[in-house]
Write a structure and sequence with these properties.
The complex is a heterodimer.
Chain A (H helix, E strand, L loop, with lengths): L17 H20 L2 H16 L9 H14 L1 H7 L1 H4 L12 H18 L6 H12 L4 H8 L3 H18 L5
Chain B lengths: L9 H39 L1 H9 L9 E4 L11 E4 L16 H6 L6 E4 L2 E7 L9 E6 L2 E6 L4 H4 L9
Parallel strand pairs in B: 1-6
Antiparallel strand pairs in B: 1-2, 3-4, 5-6
Helix pairs in contact in B: 1-2
Classes of the chains: A mainly alpha, B alpha+beta.
Chain lengths: ~180, ~170
């Protein structure tokens, strides 16, 4: 886990231009989407829809940009079908490159995706809320505070959800955690 | 490789950035243009009188070179469109154009389902219970675009716009 990655970027959503925010945070949104959607292709669509939704707003909040964008992404994923229909014309213009099998880097990326997907899918009783906290804090290394900002829940709730999610994963996979 | 090392493929990231930039710029331009257009409309109507102003709009010729389809969720020229489909004149997607043969179909399939915020989470939304599907739509010509509004046969005339005849 990259701990330096978990430090919230101080720039606010209102202060960052689209290009600045995209360059800084598109990969963060993508990682969250890969883990949550369990699908490489859909995760790319989530990134596009997240930035369209976030930067289509007339006013952006004076909040840290990254957790805010992760929060927007979370909502996009909850309403994925509806969002995809809304932004269909834009998404269709974005080329989705096929992943060439056999290249070590690509294989490693697919392995990372598959590992998370398999873990989440094989853990019974893991609800969407617990899953999001587990992805943000456990797999992606964000702080409790940043996860709380992203999901708009208190830090204490993040802690309790993370603890509950870890317990469920541990019960399902005793050797993993 | 850990999940924290996963990144968007570079080619996808670059292509996505340029498509999103173009889309957001177009939306922003549209908003600004709408505000200016609405102001100019008000000034023109005050200056020329309601009757003369209406007559001048009624005489407007359909634009010859249409560049976009704009979809409106209300029957107001000054409203922000919920969707803008533009002709791609340059760049990697040049020639990928909206379907001017069926602008109503283009707008209907992306009709925005009304949403409302969740009481306990301002970021989250949910569809309004019992929300209506897309109403009947009608296509008019507004300067260099096909403008699709909710309405029927008389809607374009009421807006002082020519109806889109498909050509």
């Amino acid at each position: 886990m990259n701990t330096s990655d978990s430090v919230a970027d101080p720039a606010t959503a209102a202060a960052l231009s689209f290009t600045e925010a995209y360059d800084l945070h598109a990969d963060h949104v993508f990682r969250f989407a890969v883990a949550r959607m369990r699908n490489w292709h859909d995760a790319q669509d989530v990134v596009a829809m997240t930035f369209l939704q976030a930067y289509g707003l007339k006013h952006r909040p004076e909040a840290s940009a990254r957790p805010w964008l992760l929060g927007v992404a979370s909502n996009v994923m909850r309403n994925f079908v509806r969002s995809a229909r809304r932004y269909r014309d834009v998404i269709d213009r974005i080329p989705h490159y096929e992943l060439p099998r056999g290249e070590p880097d690509i294989e490693a990326r697919l392995d990372a995706e598959a590992a998370v997907s398999g873990l989440l899918a094989s853990t019974p009783g893991l609800g969407t809320r617990d899953r999001e906290v587990l992805i943000l804090c456990g797999a992606l290394g964000y702080s409790y505070q940043e996860a709380g900002e992203a999901l708009d829940i208190p830090v204490g709730t993040v802690r309790s959800r993370f603890s509950r999610a870890k317990r469920k994963v541990r019960d399902a996979h005793p050797t993993f955690v | 490789m850990n999940l924290t090392d996963v990144t968007l493929p570079a080619a996808t990231k670059a292509a996505m950035r340029s498509v999103l930039e173009a889309e957001l710029r177009a939306t922003q331009t549209k908003r600004t243009r709408r505000k200016v257009g609405a102001s100019l409309l008000a000034v023109a109507l005050v200056a020329a009188g309601a009757t003369a102003g209406a007559a001048s709009f009624a005489a407007q010729e359909p634009a010859k070179d249409l560049t976009r389809i704009s979809c409106y969720s209300s029957t107001q020229v000054s409203a922000d469109p919920y969707l803008i489909l533009m002709k791609e004149l340059s760049g990697p997607f040049a020639g990928v154009n909206p379907n001017f043969e069926d602008p109503i179909g283009e707008c209907k399939q992306s009709w925005p389902v009304p949403m409302e915020p969740l009481p306990d989470n301002p970021y989250a939304v949910r569809p309004v219970a019992g929300a209506d599907p897309a109403p009947p739509l009608v296509a008019c010509v507004l300067r260099d675009e096909v403008a699709v509004f909710p309405g029927g046969e008389g809607t374009c005339g009421a807006l002082k716009l020519p109806a889109w005849n498909g050509h």
